[in-house]
Amino acid sequence: MDKIFLNEFEKLYDIVQRNIDKCPWVKSINLNIMINEASSEITEIEEALNKNDINNIEEEIGDLIYDALLILKIAERDYNISSHKAIKRVVSKISNRKPWLFWNKNISYEEASKIWHERKKAEKKSGENID
């Protein structure tokens, strides 16, 4: 993995944690407010895409990543969810549904779609709580 990316991601995570600990606005908001903030960022990404404004797309995606991390930390604060478990669950889910990511061969879109849907259906049938 790109060390520069990971370094910047760690800085962002630190900023998010400092917001949780020190920012009066963040202390006063709830998950619903942050979900609305994230939704607004998605709209801004769509607008930047429509304008083909690459610089703004990059900026707005960064804002969305920040909001997603803040949502995670607010959920941890307000609902006692585990950030570790949330990340572990998505890693497990995607790894299970997209096993070809770890294969030494390429597959077609149709094969990928079939595997994804079969795996998701099997999860639901077995009662796995991956979603």
Automatic annotation (TrEMBL):
Gene3D superfamilies: MazG-like. Residues 35-102 form the NTP pyrophosphohydrolase MazG-like domain. Pfam families: MazG (PF03819). InterPro entries: MazG-like_dom (IPR004518), NTP_PyrPHydrolase_MazG (IPR011551). This is Nucleotide pyrophosphohydrolase. It comes from Marinitoga aeolica.
